[in-house]
Amino acid sequence: xxxxxxxxxxxxxxxxxxxxxxxxxxxxxxxxxxxxxxxxxxxxxxxxxxxxxxxxxxxxxxxxxxxxxxxxxxxxxxxxxxxxxxxxxxxxxxxxxxxxxxxxxxxxxxxxxxxxxxxxxxxxxxxxxxxxxxxxxxxxxxxxxxxxxxxxxxxxxxxxxxxxxxxxxxxxxxxxxxxxxxxxxxxxxxxxxxxxxxxxxx
Length: 202
Fold this sequence. Notes:
The protein is of the alpha/beta class. It has helices at 28-35, 55-68, 91-103, 115-132, 145-155; strands at 4-9, 46-51, 72-74, 138-143, 173-178, 184-190. The chain has a six-stranded mixed sheet. α2 (55-68) links the parallel β2 (46-51) and β3 (72-74).
């Protein structure tokens, strides 16, 4: 059984309202920040990489894959909640929609995928990832902030809430849990800050 799983959110993206959101790439700053993952003490123990099929997650996983000499497996169900009904939204409008998405998980807000449905999809995808991962070593999953928040709520056995979202900013955070029994090892940490092995759970 794989040891630990590290869920990593992609960092800064190149936002372009004319481009579909799933096709946004990492910005240069995002690519630089993603390389900081390689400085984490657990990075050398990674033996498999998985990511969503969205461009920004693929870009992030590719940086790790090149440095670690590992293949990447893309998993569509690790993608962010389906927001195609609205497409790109300006920041303030998006934040209001995200608040409603988490606050009313059984409702489809303006046609967005329901949070409850997205959580079931994501939990099933992570379970499948961990079944497919090598028996030895750790696994990294490069995905998205909303995905991570929904997964974190599940791991903590708490109701869906935006309180579980990654810290505000431009993404680029991670949390860790055991692959065998899904015990949370620690909550959100920045990829820019190196935490020593054995750092306490937060």
